[in-house]
Design a protein that fits this description.
Layout: H1 40-51, H2 53-59, H3 62-76, E1 82-86, H4 88-105, E2 112-116, H5 121-124, H6 134-144, E3 151-156, H7 162-173, E4 177-182, H8 188-192, E5 195-198, H9 213-232, H10 249-263, H11 267-276, H12 281-290, H13 294-303, H14 308-317
Parallel strand pairs: 1-2, 1-3, 3-4, 4-5
Length: 323
């Protein structure tokens, strides 16, 4: 919803500079005006047909996504962080992607961070007016003390939401790399950032509900971004999640399957290796493939910056590092 330009703005907010310009993601399609009269199956078919257009739209942005992945991975290899900033659905998707990195890739929770307008309360409930509060974005970014090694990705379907825009400006001032992710072309968000991704998804079946196609596009892009970055950082071995944190029964069983897949060892050998390495999947694989003990496996991984493939090469050709 655009702000009424005659009303008093929320303190710390930035009024929409072009309140009459309706972005494509907010456009109403007259031919869909009767969806409330459709039989359920026909309604679902319509929505599903529109959803199928999203992957193609994302595919058109793959070169720009690749440039972002390479830039982010290079900075994170130097100790940088990846930060998402958004409001509403976009903010929640950033928080979700950040939250899923530690269990999937074994990362420190501070390595990938999701900022959402209105704070944690906004993850599960709408915080009215928060997306317009540029002062909140500035404060949230300032609290992170960003450096040139960090990257901030502003996420907004319209590409003009004040919160991520302000976050982009604050991050650039701090020297961090900035990326804009929007679902419209020519967005202010991408113009404000150094790198941009604009996935054109067009009007929503439910006019203006950008939790639909736009939200799907954002989720797909964030999946691509964080997963590809983690692959580049050696957080996987082939297509195996060797850095997962086995914190429950399901994940412990998954860890056993991963070690068995990577090594070809039987269940008993896998169990012994995981037991010797306190459940650390990478270490267990190294124990089995390099025929070393658990402390040596840990030393090899440390010397290889946690990259399992490099640790295996070191063990095979150079021997373990000195204790």
């Amino acid at each position: 919803m655009t702000s009424d330009p005659t009303s008093d703005p929320t303190p710390g907010s930035t009024p929409d500079p072009t309140p009459d310009a309706v972005p494509p993601t907010e456009t109403v399609r007259p031919d869909w005006a009767g969806i409330d009269r459709l039989p359920t199956l026909d309604l679902l078919r319509l929505m599903n047909a529109e959803d199928r257009t999203v992957p193609a739209a994302v595919a058109g942005e793959l070169p720009r996504i690749a440039a972002v992945v390479d830039a982010v991975a290079a900075r994170m290899a130097r100790g940088g962080r990846l930060v998402y900033a958004g409001a509403g659905t976009a903010g929640r998707l950033g928080v979700l992607d950040a939250a899923e990195c530690p269990p999937t890739f074994g990362t420190d929770p501070a390595l990938v961070v999701g900022l959402i307008a209105g704070g944690r309360t906004a993850v599960t409930a709408a915080v009215e007016g928060a997306e317009d509060r540029t002062d909140l974005a500035e404060a949230d970014v300032a609290a992170l003390a960003l450096t040139p090694a960090d990257t901030l990705v502003g996420v907004s379907a319209s590409g003009r939401t004040p919160y991520p825009l302000a976050a982009i400006h604050a991050a650039r001032t701090a020297g961090a790399l900035t990326v804009g992710l929007a679902c419209n072309r020519g967005s202010a968000l991408v113009a404000a950032a150094e790198l941009g991704i604009e996935v054109e998804v067009g009007p929503e079946v439910l006019a203006g509900s950008t939790r639909l196609k736009a939200g799907t596009a954002q989720k797909l892009v964030l999946n691509l971004l964080s997963t590809a970055v983690m692959v580049h950082l050696g957080r996987t071995y082939g297509n195996l999640m060797v850095d997962l944190r086995a914190t429950n029964t399901k994940l412990r069983e998954r860890a056993r399957r991963i070690v068995a897949e990577a090594t070809g060892a039987d269940r008993d050998a896998v169990g012994r290796a995981l037991g010797a390495t306190d459940g650390r999947t990478k270490d267990a694989i190294l124990v089995l493939l390099a025929d070393v003990d658990a402390p040596t496996a840990a030393q090899l991984l440390k010397a290889s910056d946690g990259r399992l493939r490099d640790a295996l090469e070191r063990a095979r050709h150079q021997g373990p590092p000195p204790a």
